[in-house]
Amino acid sequence: MKGFAMLGLNKVGWIEKEKPAVGPMDALLRPLAISPCTSDVHTVYEGALGDRHNLILGHEGVGEVVEVGNLVKDFKPGDKVIIPAITPDWEAVESQNGFSQHSNGMLNGWKFSNAKDGVFADFIHVNEADGNIAILPPEITIEEGAMLSDMVPTGFHGADLAEVAFGETVLVIGIGPVGLMAVAGANHRGAARIIAVGSREICAKAAKGYGATDIISYKNGDIATQVKDLTKGKGVDKVIIAGGTVDTFEEAVNVVRPGGIVSNINYLGSGDYIKIPRVAWGLGMGHIRVVGGLMPGGRKNMEYLSNLMKYKKLDVNPLLTHRFKGFENIEKGLLLMKDKPKDLIKPVITI
Ligand code: NDP
Ligand code: ZN
After folding, report:
1. In whole angstroms, how large is the CA radius of gyration of the chain?
2. How far is the CA of 286 from the centre of ligand 1 (A)?
3. Whole-model pTM over 0.85
4. 320 and 247 share one domain
5. Is the shortest distance between the CB of 265 and ligand 1 below 6 Å?
6. Tell me: the pLDDT tens digits for 234-283?
7. Strands 27-34, 124-126: parallel, antiparallel or unpaired by DSSP?
8. pLDDT per residue over 12-21, tens digit each?
9. CATH number of the domain where residue 120 is located
10. 136 and 9 in one domain?
């Protein structure tokens, strides 16, 4: 089969590989819609996972089942399914402990384009199919469905980790597709005021559509100062970080109230340490929690989040600014995610 791969640092291209073997609990899919992610950019152009060679990229998509192992109960060839970016080993102790993202090792629930070949290929191997894929409801298009792999669950995970509650004021730093879904997640969980941080007009407009009440730009100065101005010095209950760098934590802790939560879903592709300001952290006694998490994958999460789209509580179409047809457009899509032109939120490619 052919696949679009990271050949080495800063190098991508098409390669040939053996079609994956299907174990008794596995499924083999062919892609119907796929989407490149900023995480692919961190991997290829920042070397965030190290210098990988001939690793097929991609972890977002919708596929059609072509083959299943003899122990797979609920899926059959021809089914259209959502492919979660994270496909844990469900028998692992970490999964039983509630952190399936780290089944059998830190971040090891993240298999596609990390622990094994990704979805930008003629064939996609899914481990533990019954636990990891979900039927795409007929009300959802394949392009919309591709946003369920990663953008929706990651953004919503940011809101979950922040434990957003009714009436709260929430700051969302970064409003690319992930941050926009964090805005939507915070809104669904009942935030009253959502202050969103980004510089591109198209993202600001989408953020308002998803429930942001205020927009500020990190290019207009320190985020914490701008947020303090907007909140009469009070700051915010929760912060969700979906963009920026290792330095963004300093601004987040500077503006969150005592007892607040800073929830990070940003993939920190570079830098060795994050900085937590001592005084703003209450000299170590401010009850400010800083947490960060990989999105939860698996079938249940996909089924529940897809319900939000099926019943029209969530529309991902504002994210889909660039639509392509044909495998050959993958590189174009990846470069768009790297360069982030003014009119881009997220590309999707139908095969
Ligand atoms: P984008 O690059 O599209 O969005 C990043 C956002 O951050 C933009 O709004 C950008 O503003 C803003 N930004 C850039 N620099 C700064 C800064 N210095 N301070 C504040 N804001 C800034 O990324 P995505 O939305 O696609 O992804 C966001 C992150 O989430 C990525 O790191 C990605 O790898 C990660 N991720 C994490 C996952 C998880 O499971 N935890 C899963 C999937 C992705 P603008 O462009 O408007 O100037
Ligand atoms: Zn991703």
Report:
1. 20
2. 27
3. yes
4. no
5. yes
6. 999 999 999 999 999 999 999 999 999 999 999 998 899 999 999 999 99
7. antiparallel
8. 999 999 999 9
9. 3.90.180.10
10. yes
